[in-house]
Specification:
Helices cover 37% and strands 16% of the residues. The protein is α/β, with parallel strands linked by helices.
Length: 435
């Protein structure tokens, strides 16, 4: 007798992952213009890059009248000034989304290790997205060192408590879906046990990255357990997506049929050329020149951070192209547009965006700061040598003295944001959290 599997109900404001080919969550490569371009070329849904819960907590939701985006921002000493605020006030964009172009096709991925902070952060953005996804698969130290990402695979009770809380306190009230992205465990038995626990929390979707935690993207995906995971999800009525070495819509369709899952994610291939979502019958992959030109215009239209735009261009433009090296040396959107020989419309946009983002203002580089600090330390030492009887060093002013992030001023964090709700565990490259 054929057994009919019940499908878990999709909330009113949520979206069903079944039958979907989606953009995977990628730090740096999943910011607003990248997502919009993927949707333009046929992605059914897009995941935002992992945003740590503590980074989102304390943000202010702002509607940007110029870019037509919704920006979640925090005051910052190093961010760009906001002409819509008081004169001189600067802020960093923690997350940016475009409600008209992505809105209910956007899944926000959260990095967390705590049910309370996960809920607190998710509530801030739940009204603007189609779902909240928990990152339980990232193997990078900036995630695992805080008990987040793939570290949650070793603490399944914590992971389940996070999902339970999000379903009850965010998914149900906001009527959106809650999902999770995981990796393979060491044995099929361990993976099966974990997946059974996860689907019992009330989630509507689960993505399996077909690699173990120690594996890197260059290592081939392991799909031996994929059908098993898909079967467990189907029995619980939960949609199951696969991730790992998927490069096109045709390939995704074939793998979905072969392994009996509900859909697939594309990561690396979309980072290089987002037109991989388009069927060959509809035109297939577009030339990189076309992709880059579209991306640059989208990046300028949403005023994407220049450093992020430049990073993505480094993935899209072939290294052997004559424009690759000049692009890498460019410092502003205006420089880029001139290098690429784009028209006057692009040039006018670039100049306006550079002015608003202040990218044309020369900023002190890390090398310059290091040299300045070194010179300051030398001057201090020389002064001590000349006047040994005087102690010219005051506590906390030694340029060579390293401070932990928790001892710093937290980027001029205002008094109304408590330290325990601020991003107090930032890594050595905290700009990865910025748009």
């Amino acid at each position: 007798m054929l057994r009919i599997m019940a499908k878990r109900a999709i909330p009113k404001n949520g979206v069903d992952y079944r039958g979907k080919l989606v953009l995977a969550p990628m730090v740096r490569s999943g910011e607003c213009p990248s997502r919009l371009l993927a949707l333009r070329y046929g992605a059914d849904l897009v995941w935002g890059p992992e945003t740590v819960d503590k980074a989102l907590i304390g943000t202010t939701r702002r509607v940007n009248p110029v870019t037509k985006t919704i920006d979640f921002t925090k005051p910052s000493a190093s961010g760009a000034s906001n002409p819509n605020l008081a004169s001189g006030q600067r802020e960093s964009v923690i997350f940016r989304l475009h409600p008209e172009q992505e809105g209910r096709r956007l899944i926000h991925q959260i990095g967390t290790a705590n049910p309370a902070t996960a809920v607190q952060a998710a509530k801030l953005i739940a009204g603007d997205v189609a779902g909240i996804d928990v990152n339980a698969g990232c193997p990078k130290p900036f995630s695992t060192s805080g008990g987040m990402g793939a570290a949650l695979l070793q603490t399944p009770d914590t992971l389940c408590s996070i999902l339970d809380a999000l379903v009850a306190e965010v998914g149900i009230p906001f009527e959106i879906g809650i999902s999770v992205k995981i990796r393979l465990l060491d044995t099929p038995e361990q993976t099966a046990e974990l997946v059974r626990k996860l689907v019992a929390t009330g989630i509507t979707g689960l993505t399996l990255h077909c690699r173990t935690t120690p594996m890197r993207p260059r290592e081939r995906a392991i799909r031996d357990q994929l059908r098993m995971v898909g079967d467990i999800c189907r029995e619980a009525g939960v949609a199951c997506l696969m991730n790992g070495d998927v490069t096109s819509r045709e390939e995704a369709n074939k793998l979905v049929q072969e392994y009996g899952v509900d859909g697939a994610m594309i990561a690396t291939a979309a980072e290089t050329n987002p037109s991989c979502f388009r069927l060959e019958a509809d035109g297939g992959r577009a030339p990189w020149e076309e992709i880059v030109k579209e991306y640059v215009k989208l990046a300028m239209s949403v005023e994407n951070r220049w450093g992020n735009t430049k990073y993505l261009l480094g993935q899209m433009i072939p290294g052997k192209s004559p424009c690759y090296r000049p692009m890498n040396q460019s410092k502003t959107y205006t420089d880029l547009v001139k290098i690429m020989n784009y028209d006057e419309e692009y040039l006018a946009m670039a100049e306006a965006v550079d002015q608003r983002l202040e990218t044309s203002i020369k900023k002190e580089t890390r090398a310059e700061k290091k040299a300045k600090n070194k010179a300051g330390g030398a001057d201090s030492k020389a002064s001590t040598t000349r006047a040994p009887q005087q102690n010219t060093r005051s506590e906390g002013t030694d340029a060579n003295k390293k401070r932990k992030y928790d001892d710093a001023r937290l980027d001029a964090m205002p008094d109304d944001i408590a330290r325990e709700t601020a991003p107090g565990t930032m890594e050595s490259n905290p700009t990865q959290l910025l748009v």
